[in-house]
Specification:
With about 100 residues, the chain is of the alpha/beta class. The chain is built from four helices and three strands; from the N terminus they run H-H-E-H-E-H-E. The chain has a three-stranded parallel β-sheet, with helices on one face.
């Protein structure tokens, strides 16, 4: 049973996706806020709307980690997550199709 919504533009879609991911991982955040650090790993070529969304969510732009998807191997991604002391549960990996 699939579903979906139409949204007016990429920036808004990115923000809604991050809000949905946050509510999925932290359902209580709607009432209590998020008390755990959240980081986003995103393609270096994806939109700046990711940083804008992080500002609107109150998480901050310093929690956006940009990577080059053409150069980063799965092992390097794993090392990046471990280096930043990020648990998988608190990582939102944003991939952008058709950016380049």
């Amino acid at each position: 049973t699939a579903g979906g919504v139409f949204l007016p533009g990429g920036s808004y879609c990115t923000l809604i996706a991050m809000i949905c991911a946050r509510y999925h991982k932290f359902p209580e955040s709607k009432a209590t806020g998020v008390n755990s650090p959240i980081q986003v790993i995103a393609s270096s070529s994806s939109q700046s709307s990711i940083e804008e969304g992080m500002v609107m969510l109150g998480v901050g732009t310093e929690n956006v980690i940009r990577i080059d998807l053409h150069q980063t191997t799965p092992r390097e991604l794993e090392e990046l997550i471990q280096k930043n002391n990020v648990f998988y549960d608190n990582v939102n990996l944003l991939l952008t199709q058709g950016t380049e």
